[in-house]
Write a structure and sequence with these properties.
By secondary structure, this protein is mainly alpha-helical. The chain folds into two domains: 26-151, Serine Threonine Protein Phosphatase 5, Tetratricopeptide repeat (Alpha Horseshoe), CATH 1.25.40; 152-221. Helix content is 78%, strand content 0%. It contains eleven helices and no strands. It has helices at residues 2-13, 19-53, 56-74, 78-91, 96-109, 113-124, 131-145, 153-161, 171-185, 188-200, 206-219. The chain is elongated, with a radius of gyration of 19 Å. The two termini are 27 Å apart.
Length: 221
């Protein structure tokens, strides 16, 4: 974990004027790990539900098409993969929702945060999708909007508020993003409150607690 150690040392050495820059570096370093857990959930649970809904031959055909698109992403051919996922989403079937999530991820990979955020908002607004996955789209979309200079921070914070509830499976991700939003908005008190809560919560994933502690060191007293 050499990279984390270097960041930790750097955070202690920099002065207050440079802390905003280090906040950006921290998010670039750790953000991908924050997303990993929710993506795994989508691929496993949603994929399983899709397999329950369609006959074997249709499932096999969809599975082959979906895997082909995924292979294109792995090979770096994101444009062709995006086309395939669009087609899968249009045709419907057990992989429709997964295809749409992958579309959004490809936009993000290509650096099109606006396109990714729009794709996630479309998922959020689709009442045919289970609320669990619509809430996941809120989380993933918020990550994309986080560094958008034109993002409406109060609206974004409000969208995340209910996902911070104790019974929400996304409460830790929602709390982490809310803390980052508060930091960006200049509300140090709110940011510290949110990150302190995460750092002190023994039920929070270890990665979340570690990042929260790092953010507290950046924000300072």
């Amino acid at each position: 974990m050499a990279e984390e150690t270097e960041d930790d040392i750097l955070f202690r050495e920099i002065d207050e004027d440079l802390r905003q820059d280090e906040f950006q570096k921290l998010w670039k370093a750790y953000g991908k790990y924050a997303l990993a857990g929710v993506v795994v959930i989508v691929l496993s649970v949603a994929g399983f539900k899709g397999w329950q809904s369609y006959d074997i031959s249709a499932r096999e055909a969809l599975g082959v098409r979906f895997q082909s698109a995924a292979n294109l992403v792995t090979a770096g051919n994101t444009d062709e993969a995006l086309k395939m996922f669009f087609k899968i989403a249009e045709d419907g079937g057990g992989y429709q929702m997964l295809a749409r999530f992958n579309q959004a991820q490809i936009y993000a990979r290509k650096g099109d945060a606006g396109g990714a955020a729009a794709a996630y908002r479309a998922l959020v607004g689709d009442g045919a999708i289970d609320s669990l996955y619509r809430d996941l789209a809120v989380i993933l979309g918020a990550y994309q909007e986080l560094n958008d200079p034109g993002a409406n921070l109060p609206v974004l914070a409000k969208r995340l508020e209910r996902l911070r509830a104790e019974n929400s499976p996304w409460r830790y991700s929602a709390g982490e993003i809310s803390g980052l939003l508060a930091r960006r908005a200049g509300d140090r008190t709110k940011a510290k409150e949110l990150f302190q809560g995460l750092a002190n919560d023994p039920r929070a994933p270890q990665g979340v607690r570690a990042r929260a502690q790092e953010m507290l060191s950046i924000i300072g007293k």
